[in-house]
Amino acid sequence: RQVAEQQRALEEHARSLEKAVQERTRELIAANAAKDEFLSMASHELKTPLSSLKGMTQLLRRKLERAGSSDVIRLVSMENSIRRMELLVNDLLNISFIEMGMFVLHKQPTDINELCRRLVDEYIVGTNPPPVVEVDLPAEKIEMAIDVDRFGQVIINLLSNARKYSSAPIRLSVRVEDEQCIISVSDDGVGIPPEVLPHIFERFYRVPGIEVQRGSSIGLGLGLYISNQIVERHGGRIDVQSTPGKGSVFSVVLPLKVASPVEDSTQVSQP
Ligand code: ADP
Protein backbone atom coordinates (compact mmCIF):
# COMPACT_ATOMS: atom_id res chain seq x y z
CA ARG A 1 0.00 0.00 0.00
CA GLN A 2 2.89 2.27 0.79
CA VAL A 3 4.25 1.79 -2.74
CA ALA A 4 0.84 2.56 -4.25
CA GLU A 5 0.61 5.75 -2.18
CA GLN A 6 4.07 6.81 -3.23
CA GLN A 7 3.13 6.15 -6.84
CA ARG A 8 -0.03 8.26 -6.51
CA ALA A 9 1.96 11.08 -4.93
CA LEU A 10 4.50 10.91 -7.74
CA GLU A 11 1.78 10.96 -10.40
CA GLU A 12 0.17 13.94 -8.67
CA HIS A 13 3.51 15.71 -8.61
CA ALA A 14 4.12 14.95 -12.30
CA ARG A 15 0.65 16.33 -13.19
CA SER A 16 1.23 19.55 -11.32
CA LEU A 17 4.66 19.91 -12.92
CA GLU A 18 3.14 19.41 -16.38
CA LYS A 19 0.50 22.04 -15.62
CA ALA A 20 3.15 24.49 -14.45
CA VAL A 21 5.20 23.90 -17.61
CA GLN A 22 2.14 24.45 -19.82
CA GLU A 23 1.29 27.65 -17.99
CA ARG A 24 4.86 28.92 -18.25
CA THR A 25 4.95 28.08 -21.98
CA ARG A 26 1.72 30.03 -22.53
CA GLU A 27 3.21 32.97 -20.62
CA LEU A 28 6.42 32.85 -22.68
CA ILE A 29 4.52 32.69 -25.98
CA ALA A 30 2.42 35.70 -24.93
CA ALA A 31 5.52 37.61 -23.77
CA ASN A 32 7.28 36.82 -27.04
CA ALA A 33 4.31 38.03 -29.08
CA ALA A 34 4.18 41.22 -27.00
CA LYS A 35 7.91 41.75 -27.56
CA ASP A 36 7.51 41.29 -31.34
CA GLU A 37 4.61 43.70 -31.38
CA PHE A 38 6.53 46.25 -29.36
CA LEU A 39 9.59 45.93 -31.60
CA SER A 40 7.50 46.38 -34.70
CA MET A 41 5.54 49.34 -33.31
CA ALA A 42 8.59 51.06 -31.87
CA SER A 43 10.57 50.77 -35.09
CA HIS A 44 7.61 51.99 -37.15
CA GLU A 45 7.18 54.96 -34.83
CA LEU A 46 10.89 55.77 -35.06
CA LYS A 47 10.88 55.64 -38.85
CA THR A 48 8.53 58.59 -39.37
CA PRO A 49 10.39 61.25 -37.35
CA LEU A 50 13.65 59.98 -38.79
CA SER A 51 12.53 60.50 -42.37
CA SER A 52 11.30 64.02 -41.66
CA LEU A 53 14.59 64.76 -39.90
CA LYS A 54 16.40 63.44 -42.96
CA GLY A 55 14.32 65.59 -45.30
CA MET A 56 14.89 68.72 -43.24
CA THR A 57 18.65 68.15 -42.98
CA GLN A 58 18.93 67.65 -46.73
CA LEU A 59 16.99 70.84 -47.33
CA LEU A 60 19.15 72.78 -44.90
CA ARG A 61 22.34 71.37 -46.40
CA ARG A 62 21.30 72.46 -49.89
CA LYS A 63 20.54 75.96 -48.57
CA LEU A 64 23.93 76.18 -46.86
CA GLU A 65 25.64 74.85 -49.98
CA ARG A 66 24.00 77.55 -52.07
CA ALA A 67 25.06 80.18 -49.54
CA GLY A 68 28.62 78.77 -49.60
CA SER A 69 28.59 78.28 -45.82
CA SER A 70 31.31 76.25 -44.10
CA ASP A 71 28.64 74.80 -41.80
CA VAL A 72 27.80 72.35 -44.59
CA ILE A 73 30.28 69.89 -43.09
CA ARG A 74 28.22 69.72 -39.89
CA LEU A 75 25.10 68.95 -41.87
CA VAL A 76 26.93 66.19 -43.75
CA SER A 77 27.95 64.58 -40.49
CA MET A 78 24.37 64.96 -39.21
CA GLU A 79 23.11 63.25 -42.35
CA ASN A 80 25.56 60.41 -41.80
CA SER A 81 24.33 59.91 -38.24
CA ILE A 82 20.72 59.92 -39.43
CA ARG A 83 21.58 57.36 -42.12
CA ARG A 84 23.21 55.08 -39.55
CA MET A 85 20.18 55.44 -37.28
CA GLU A 86 17.94 54.62 -40.23
CA LEU A 87 19.89 51.42 -40.89
CA LEU A 88 19.51 50.35 -37.25
CA VAL A 89 15.77 51.08 -37.25
CA ASN A 90 15.42 49.15 -40.52
CA ASP A 91 17.22 46.19 -38.95
CA LEU A 92 14.79 46.25 -36.02
CA LEU A 93 11.85 46.46 -38.39
CA ASN A 94 13.19 43.58 -40.46
CA ILE A 95 13.76 41.43 -37.43
CA SER A 96 10.23 41.98 -36.22
CA PHE A 97 8.90 41.05 -39.67
CA ILE A 98 10.96 37.86 -39.63
CA GLU A 99 9.83 36.99 -36.09
CA MET A 100 6.19 37.55 -36.92
CA GLY A 101 6.46 35.50 -40.13
CA MET A 102 5.57 38.55 -42.22
CA PHE A 103 8.65 38.54 -44.40
CA VAL A 104 7.51 38.76 -48.01
CA LEU A 105 9.70 38.46 -51.10
CA HIS A 106 8.75 40.22 -54.33
CA LYS A 107 10.86 38.41 -56.90
CA GLN A 108 11.52 39.77 -60.37
CA PRO A 109 13.96 38.81 -63.13
CA THR A 110 17.13 40.77 -62.46
CA ASP A 111 20.45 41.29 -64.20
CA ILE A 112 22.89 40.44 -61.38
CA ASN A 113 25.92 42.26 -62.87
CA GLU A 114 23.90 45.42 -63.40
CA LEU A 115 22.47 45.22 -59.89
CA CYS A 116 25.90 44.74 -58.28
CA ARG A 117 27.37 47.64 -60.25
CA ARG A 118 24.46 49.91 -59.21
CA LEU A 119 24.66 48.85 -55.56
CA VAL A 120 28.39 49.51 -55.37
CA ASP A 121 27.92 52.96 -56.97
CA GLU A 122 25.11 53.80 -54.54
CA TYR A 123 27.13 52.51 -51.63
CA ILE A 124 30.18 54.61 -52.53
CA VAL A 125 28.13 57.78 -53.08
CA GLY A 126 26.20 57.31 -49.83
CA THR A 127 29.27 56.68 -47.63
CA ASN A 128 31.47 59.30 -46.11
CA PRO A 129 34.42 59.17 -46.71
CA PRO A 130 33.75 57.21 -49.92
CA PRO A 131 35.36 53.77 -49.70
CA VAL A 132 37.37 52.16 -52.49
CA VAL A 133 35.52 49.14 -53.89
CA GLU A 134 37.10 46.98 -56.60
CA VAL A 135 34.48 45.27 -58.75
CA ASP A 136 35.06 42.11 -60.77
CA LEU A 137 32.10 41.08 -62.92
CA PRO A 138 31.93 38.27 -65.48
CA ALA A 139 31.40 39.03 -69.17
CA GLU A 140 28.32 36.82 -69.33
CA LYS A 141 24.88 38.11 -68.36
CA ILE A 142 23.35 36.43 -65.29
CA GLU A 143 19.61 36.82 -64.91
CA MET A 144 17.84 35.53 -61.83
CA ALA A 145 14.50 36.03 -60.11
CA ILE A 146 15.25 37.82 -56.87
CA ASP A 147 13.75 40.43 -54.58
CA VAL A 148 15.90 43.36 -55.66
CA ASP A 149 15.41 45.47 -52.52
CA ARG A 150 16.00 42.64 -50.07
CA PHE A 151 18.91 41.28 -52.03
CA GLY A 152 20.38 44.76 -52.31
CA GLN A 153 20.14 44.97 -48.53
CA VAL A 154 22.31 41.83 -48.24
CA ILE A 155 25.03 43.14 -50.56
CA ILE A 156 25.06 46.58 -48.91
CA ASN A 157 25.30 44.92 -45.51
CA LEU A 158 28.28 42.81 -46.60
CA LEU A 159 29.96 45.87 -48.13
CA SER A 160 29.44 47.98 -45.02
CA ASN A 161 30.69 45.17 -42.77
CA ALA A 162 33.80 44.85 -44.93
CA ARG A 163 34.36 48.58 -44.56
CA LYS A 164 33.61 48.52 -40.84
CA TYR A 165 36.29 45.96 -40.14
CA SER A 166 38.96 46.96 -42.67
CA SER A 167 40.76 50.11 -43.77
CA ALA A 168 41.96 48.69 -47.11
CA PRO A 169 39.98 48.51 -50.38
CA ILE A 170 37.01 46.15 -50.48
CA ARG A 171 36.38 43.75 -53.38
CA LEU A 172 33.11 42.56 -54.86
CA SER A 173 33.19 39.78 -57.40
CA VAL A 174 30.54 37.78 -59.23
CA ARG A 175 31.12 34.39 -60.83
CA VAL A 176 29.21 31.33 -61.99
CA GLU A 177 30.41 27.94 -60.81
CA ASP A 178 28.68 24.54 -60.77
CA GLU A 179 25.25 25.96 -61.66
CA GLN A 180 25.59 28.52 -58.89
CA CYS A 181 25.96 32.27 -58.89
CA ILE A 182 28.52 33.35 -56.30
CA ILE A 183 28.73 36.96 -55.17
CA SER A 184 31.72 37.50 -52.90
CA VAL A 185 32.62 40.50 -50.80
CA SER A 186 36.17 40.39 -49.47
CA ASP A 187 38.26 42.57 -47.22
CA ASP A 188 41.78 42.58 -45.80
CA GLY A 189 40.55 43.53 -42.33
CA VAL A 190 40.65 42.14 -38.82
CA GLY A 191 39.14 38.76 -39.73
CA ILE A 192 37.07 36.55 -37.42
CA PRO A 193 38.49 34.00 -34.95
CA PRO A 194 37.53 30.43 -36.00
CA GLU A 195 35.95 29.66 -32.62
CA VAL A 196 33.32 32.39 -33.00
CA LEU A 197 32.71 31.94 -36.73
CA PRO A 198 29.69 29.61 -36.17
CA HIS A 199 27.97 32.35 -34.14
CA ILE A 200 28.16 35.35 -36.46
CA PHE A 201 24.80 34.62 -38.13
CA GLU A 202 23.00 34.50 -34.78
CA ARG A 203 20.67 37.31 -33.77
CA PHE A 204 22.40 40.11 -31.82
CA TYR A 205 25.77 38.35 -31.97
CA ARG A 206 28.85 40.55 -32.19
CA VAL A 207 32.43 39.31 -31.88
CA PRO A 208 33.54 40.59 -28.45
CA GLY A 209 36.22 43.26 -28.36
CA ILE A 210 36.24 44.03 -32.08
CA GLU A 211 36.62 47.69 -33.01
CA VAL A 212 34.94 49.27 -36.00
CA GLN A 213 36.59 51.79 -38.36
CA ARG A 214 35.97 55.46 -37.62
CA GLY A 215 32.70 56.74 -39.06
CA SER A 216 31.03 53.32 -38.86
CA SER A 217 28.28 52.47 -36.42
CA ILE A 218 28.83 49.65 -33.95
CA GLY A 219 25.67 47.84 -35.04
CA LEU A 220 23.26 45.58 -33.21
CA GLY A 221 24.59 42.28 -34.48
CA LEU A 222 21.52 41.83 -36.68
CA GLY A 223 22.88 42.46 -40.19
CA LEU A 224 24.22 38.97 -40.90
CA TYR A 225 21.22 37.27 -39.30
CA ILE A 226 18.85 39.23 -41.54
CA SER A 227 21.08 38.76 -44.62
CA ASN A 228 21.21 35.02 -44.03
CA GLN A 229 17.43 34.85 -43.70
CA ILE A 230 17.01 36.74 -46.99
CA VAL A 231 19.50 34.55 -48.86
CA GLU A 232 18.04 31.32 -47.45
CA ARG A 233 14.59 32.42 -48.56
CA HIS A 234 16.02 32.77 -52.06
CA GLY A 235 17.16 29.13 -51.82
CA GLY A 236 20.81 30.04 -51.24
CA ARG A 237 23.36 30.33 -48.44
CA ILE A 238 26.16 32.62 -47.23
CA ASP A 239 29.63 31.06 -46.91
CA VAL A 240 32.41 32.67 -44.89
CA GLN A 241 36.15 32.23 -45.01
CA SER A 242 38.08 34.29 -42.55
CA THR A 243 41.59 34.49 -41.15
CA PRO A 244 42.26 36.64 -38.08
CA GLY A 245 44.52 39.53 -38.98
CA LYS A 246 44.23 38.81 -42.70
CA GLY A 247 40.61 39.40 -43.69
CA SER A 248 37.31 37.80 -44.63
CA VAL A 249 35.40 36.63 -47.67
CA PHE A 250 31.61 36.49 -47.45
CA SER A 251 30.07 34.64 -50.41
CA VAL A 252 26.39 34.65 -51.29
CA VAL A 253 25.78 31.38 -53.12
CA LEU A 254 22.57 31.15 -55.15
CA PRO A 255 21.62 28.10 -57.20
CA LEU A 256 20.97 29.32 -60.75
CA LYS A 257 18.20 26.76 -61.22
CA VAL A 258 16.11 27.54 -58.14
CA ALA A 259 16.36 31.25 -58.73
CA SER A 260 15.76 31.10 -62.48
CA PRO A 261 12.99 33.45 -63.68
CA VAL A 262 11.29 30.67 -65.63
CA GLU A 263 10.68 28.55 -62.56
CA ASP A 264 10.01 31.18 -59.99
CA SER A 265 9.13 34.71 -60.94
CA THR A 266 6.05 35.00 -58.79
CA GLN A 267 5.59 36.77 -55.51
CA VAL A 268 6.57 34.46 -52.67
CA SER A 269 5.04 34.79 -49.24
CA GLN A 270 7.09 33.37 -46.45
CA PRO A 271 5.53 31.41 -43.60
P1 ADP B 1 27.04 44.19 -36.78
O1 ADP B 1 25.88 45.11 -36.88
O2 ADP B 1 27.59 44.10 -35.41
O3 ADP B 1 28.09 44.42 -37.83
P2 ADP B 1 26.50 41.70 -38.17
O4 ADP B 1 25.42 40.71 -37.91
O5 ADP B 1 26.55 42.33 -39.50
O6 ADP B 1 26.38 42.75 -37.01
O7 ADP B 1 27.87 40.97 -37.89
C1 ADP B 1 28.04 40.18 -36.72
C2 ADP B 1 29.48 40.23 -36.25
O8 ADP B 1 30.31 39.53 -37.18
C3 ADP B 1 30.05 41.63 -36.19
O9 ADP B 1 29.76 42.26 -34.97
C4 ADP B 1 31.54 41.38 -36.37
O10 ADP B 1 32.10 41.06 -35.13
C5 ADP B 1 31.58 40.15 -37.27
N1 ADP B 1 31.84 40.52 -38.69
C6 ADP B 1 30.90 40.65 -39.67
N2 ADP B 1 31.49 40.98 -40.85
C7 ADP B 1 32.82 41.04 -40.59
C8 ADP B 1 33.98 41.33 -41.41
N3 ADP B 1 33.90 41.61 -42.71
N4 ADP B 1 35.20 41.29 -40.79
C9 ADP B 1 35.32 41.00 -39.47
N5 ADP B 1 34.27 40.73 -38.67
C10 ADP B 1 33.04 40.76 -39.21
UniProtKB/TrEMBL annotation:
Keywords linked to the UniProt accession: Coiled coil, Kinase, Phosphoprotein, Transcription, Transcription regulation, Transferase, Two-component regulatory system
GO molecular function, one term: phosphorelay sensor kinase activity
Any coiled-coil regions, as ranges: 1-27
All copies of domain Histidine kinase, residue ranges: 41-258
E.C. number(s) listed in UniProt: 2.7.13.3
Catalytic activity: ATP + protein L-histidine = ADP + protein N-phospho-L-histidine
Name listed for the protein in its UniProt record: histidine kinase
